[in-house]
Amino acid sequence: MQNFTVPTRETVSENNQTLFDNLQKGLGFVPNLYATFAYSKNALGTYMALQNAKSSLRAKEREVINLVVSQVNECRYCLAAHTTLGKMNGFSDEQILELRAGHASFDPKLHALATFVKETTENHGRPSAAAVDAFFEAGYNNENLIDTIMVIGDKIISNYFHGITQIPVDFPEAVALEMA
Questions:
Q1: pTM above the 0.70 mark?
Q2: Which among 66, 27, 57, 45 has a CA at the least distance from the CA of 162?
Q3: DSSP code of 136?
Q4: pLDDT of residue 106
Q5: Overall average pLDDT of the 69-97 stretch
Q6: Tell me: the pLDDT tens digits for 31-68?
Q7: Which has the least CB within 10 A, 8, 37, 48, 60?
Q8: Would you kindly state where each structural domain of the chain is located, as residue ranges?
Q9: How far apart (Å, rounded) are the C-alpha atoms in residues 104 and 4?
Q10: Exposure pattern of 66-103 as b/e (b: 16+ CB <10 Å)?
């Protein structure tokens, strides 16, 4: 299998160097996953635009989606990153593990979201009618549905990207779900 190394600022296009500088300023480092997108002159900017797009979903809801999709797809990198981000968004370690399993006993609305996302991801875009109904009954609307699907797609991109490149995880490792 191809061995992917993480590009450095000096080895990427001028446009990507600017994006690296912005990531360095905002996060204090350039995550390996983002850096590896910079093998393409356009992919990093395109991916960051998708991730930073306006949404009807709150940051906590987006983290629910990120955690569930990354668990379904068994992406070590994204689970590590979104465990860190989930904590920054106010979730406890226990809540993060529950979300990764596709549940949220601590919040009925987030539970409906997690269930819908898990079924959608596991069934390749075909959740059960019950999961869709529960999503809407929890108070979500059509705009939220579309934005949820966008975040699922965003996370599938990064999950697959890491699955193929296997670049080093540069966030604290997430505990394995079966160990919890």
A1: yes
A2: 66
A3: H
A4: 98
A5: 97
A6: 999 999 999 999 999 999 999 999 999 999 999 999 99
A7: 8
A8: 9-51, 59-179
A9: 36
A10: bbbbbbbbebbbbbbbbbebbeebebeeebbbbbbebb
User: Residue 78's pLDDT is what?
Assistant: 98
* 37 Cβ neighbours under 8 A, 6+ residues apart: 43, 44, 47, 161
Q: 59-179: which CATH architecture?
A: Up-down Bundle (1.20)
Here the contacts of 110-115 (C-beta below 8 Å, separation 24 or greater) are: 110/60, 110/61, 110/64, 111/138, 112/137, 112/138, 112/140, 113/61, 113/64, 113/65, 113/138, 113/140, 113/148, 114/64, 114/68
Q: What is the pLDDT of residues 115-124, one digit of tens each?
A: 999 999 999 9
The one-letter amino acid code at 175 reads V
Instruction: Collapse the DSSP code of 42 into the 3-class scheme (helix H, G, I; strand E, B; otherwise coil) and give the result.
Output: coil
- The CATH number for 9-51, chosen from 1.10.10, 2.60.40, 1.20.5, 3.40.91, is 1.20.5
Residues 127 and 91: their CA atoms lie apart, in Å, by 25
